[in-house]
Design goal:
Number of domains: 1
Strand content: under 5%
Structural class: mainly alpha
Number of helices: 12
Shape: globular
Number of strands: 0
Helix content: over 70%
Largest sheet: none
């Protein structure tokens, strides 16, 4: 047991050092800073006419943008992990060491989660501190809800990314699979759902089920329900959600479904990793 923990710690330090060397932390931090900066700037411009909308409005808008950007960042940072390690001989080196394949997978997943979620945690905590300084003390529930939802969403797409990497034979195929996955989750699903609604009249429960099947939409609904418990912006579906589920169950779906999806994807990636030849 102690040997396994020591191996995972050593591999985790190795993966984090590799992430820092490849400047993934800087890339994710710069992406979040640009998104935050854009919405803060837009909020300040709007305040000249309508009055400052507050940091809670900024956090809400940023959250809706992050749930679109974050899956792409997670997929890009993970889809090359297994297939590239197989091709570069990293696995051949690891097989000569007293470590297991799942130890490497655990360290790789943990390092990617730290690199992707870490900068966002820093920015949201800084926003929370700024809210306390400016007298806006109602940010804590929204920031906590946002961190919980985006962390589960990150875990889902990190798992999907490693599954894609374990199933792809080449790095090029892994990249294509990752981009198709992101397009399906962020764009194609919405178009498909709109097409279904234009063709058939569905009950609000069916619409919610089709929408929540996409973890990105489930995360967006979970964040929105914390700000607008009535979900009036969603029309009849929002009225059904507010009365049938409520904010707590909407949060449970928005967190639980991505966690389940990520767990299943990582289980499949682990199976593929255990069955495949690790020497490319």
């Amino acid at each position: 047991m102690n040997a396994a923990i020591s191996a995972r710690r050593a591999l985790l330090r190795l993966e984090l050092a590799d992430a820092l060397r490849s400047r993934w932390v800087l890339f994710t931090a710069a992406t979040y800073v640009l998104v935050f900066g854009a919405f803060v700037w837009l909020g300040l411009r709007e305040s000249r006419v309508l009055g400052f909308t507050g940091l809670s409005r900024v956090v809400l808008n940023v959250s809706n943008a992050v749930v679109i950007v974050l899956p792409l960042v997670a997929l890009v940072s993970t889809n090359q992990g297994i297939v590239r390690a197989r091709g570069t001989g990293l696995f051949e080196l690891l097989l000569a060491q007293p470590v297991k394949r799942e130890d490497w997978l655990f360290s790789a997943v943990a390092s990617r989660l730290a690199v992707i979620v870490g900068p966002l945690v820093v920015l949201l905590v800084a926003t929370l501190v700024a809210g306390w300084v400016t007298g806006e003390r109602s940010l804590a529930p929204l920031v906590g809800r946002t961190l919980l939802v985006v962390s589960s969403l990150t875990f889902a797409f990190v798992g999907v990314g490693f599954f894609v990497s374990s199933a792809a034979r080449t790095t090029e195929r892994a990249t294509v699979y990752a981009l198709v996955t992101w397009l399906g989750a962020s764009v194609l699903h919405d178009f498909g759902l709109i097409g279904v609604l234009l063709r058939w009249r569905l009950s609000p429960a069916a619409v919610f089920g089709l929408a929540a099947a996409n973890p990105v939409e489930a995360a967006r609904i979970a964040i929105l329900s914390g700000v607008d418990p009535d979900l009036s912006v969603l029309g009849p579906v929002g009225f059904w959600l507010a009365n049938a589920l409520g904010p707590r169950l909407a949060l449970a779906v928005g967190v639980g479904w991505p966690l389940l999806l990520g767990t299943l994807a990582l289980a499949l990636a682990r199976r593929n990793l255990a069955r495949s030849d690790l020497v490319g």
